[in-house]
Amino acid sequence: FYIPKVLSEEELELLTVHYRLQILSNYTKVYEYELQANMYELKKERAMLFPEFYAGYFSQQIDNIQGFHGWEAGVSIPLIAWSQAHKIKAKNIENEIKNNELKNSLRSLEYLFDAEVKKYRLLKEELRFIKEIALPNAKISSEKADILFKTGEIAWYEYLESFEIFTKSKLVYYDLLNELIETRLKLEYLTE
Known about the structure:
single chain, 192 residues, mainly alpha, 2 strands, 12% strand
């Protein structure tokens, strides 16, 4: 069973910087590969606008008669270039769409990470408050109620109310600790 340690503010900041650098590095690699592939596609579409030159040699044998040899050379000129121009425009639009998708995915990952960091900080502060203030006060109140109940100064239901407050404070503390650990694990998952 793995329980991660509570991160200090400095460790959290380092984790945040590390995550941003890692995401930007991965994003840059993905972006470069996508951009390079799209540029090759665009070059291929543009090349279809230009004439195509070809040359060849052939040698045939028909019914065991040899000697059919020849050379062939030619030029193919595209007569209708407007359809190819539309394909190039479509490829440019597709490139823009892919670029925007990559940027949006980066933003959503950064937003998710920032939300988890904020949640972690909030939980850490709540946990500190409960540990340093609420739990000691509830424990003192419960101990006083125990003494007062034994001396007969309070009724049993008042004693149980005090004990219930102390128990609920502990449950809240453990729930927050559990949530803090889950958030820490999410942060570790996002940074790997």
